[in-house]
Amino acid sequence: MAILSDYEEDQQHQQSSSSSSSSLSSKKDFIPAEKEADATAKKPEDEKKQQKENKLVPNKENGLDMENYSWGQSLQEVTVNVPVPQGTKSSLLLCDIKTNSLKVGLKGQPPIIDGELFKPVKVDDCIWSLEDKEMITILICKRDQSEWWKSLLKGDPEIDTQKAEPEPSKLSDLDSETRSAVEKMMFDQRQKQKGLPTSDEIQKEQLMKQFMAQNPNMKFPLGAKFMPPSVNPRTLSVMAILSDYEEDQQHQQSSSSSSLSSKKDIILAEKEPEATAKKPEEEEEEKQQKENKLVPNKDNGLDMENYSWGQSLQEVTVNVPVPQGTKSSLLLCDIKTNSLKVGLKGQPPIIDGELHKPVKFDDCIWSLEDKKMINILICKRDQSEWWKSLLKGDPEIDTQKAEPEPSKLSDLDSETRSAVEKMMFDQRQKQMGLPTSDEIQKQELMKQFMAQNPNMKFPPGAQFM
Known about the structure:
The protein is built from 10 helices and 16 strands. It has a 5-stranded antiparallel beta sheet, with no helix packed on it. By secondary structure, it is of the alpha+beta class.
């Protein structure tokens, strides 16, 4: 393992360095390398900009329509469609798929596709067929299933992979922990683009307000924040107090007992989990509640008897039908931080209850559409999670099946998007009992190391991890 660790570092060093392939073993060797780096300085910014502008927008299959064929891709596979003359027989076709190359065409004629593939593939998992005697369809299985290809063949026009879109349904396949992390990253990225606070900063600000409200006699620095841009000695003491306060709040949420200040209290607290352990009937009830969760509608909400609601991570929309010709003066729409009441004046309300989560009522609006539909736009206070229902006590949806806007992933910066796609890929691999991206990388590195050291003895079934 120690040898492999050194080997991995050496491999990374070779990839990140533009110097010659010979290793630098002395100061004398290192000096020319520095000069070489100066000689091969970064390309001018305008040239980089030109390269970026030359990248093409991918087609709807995340690939490109070429002159004689088209190709598309998912994170796992590449599909290639090659038109051939109507009535062509499969015996007349040539389709040679290798680890690093692809050759396709008609026997006895110049190949339609012939070149080095953008990335290595799993040859044994690749297949091709002739569809309706007029289209060669090739399914290529990527070896590295955690990144997008820029082109089918090296040297071909490249697409802008930042505009590639994974299957929108994949996010719902993630487990709750991974999905929460992904949605948090997506939310934080959108907030940063708008110059707004991230989810952590929002939580800190709310905690700061709560702390200040509970300590009205304490003096705070002007414009004090829980996470100030620059920390000065005066605010540092406030942050220390708030840090203790935050820990205390978390402790209170995770424990139903009072603060423990003595050994006697600790002993009681140790006994308490046994007393408060869930009974089998309670576990069965929780399981039943989970099974009773409903599949959300296409707007990530639910169609109720007298109204329907939907949501994004930022907002909730509510549509309430009213008799045709209703005037706005006859309507009642009372939106508060924690409650909603909607209906016709002088009649029992259509909606009346406590909202699932607090809202920013100053940012909420409502309107009467075509004199027959009340449309309400509610701005969530916590914009990083899905609502299970509009009102507390109403039927709940399965938030794991809620879908964010599919275009949002393409709005992420490259670093955040790579992290998100890696998490999604690793989750799919775990579900199928397959190695994660890190494990695949380690295995490839192990194979490469063993190939470069044929005389070294390795234990049977040796693995990098």
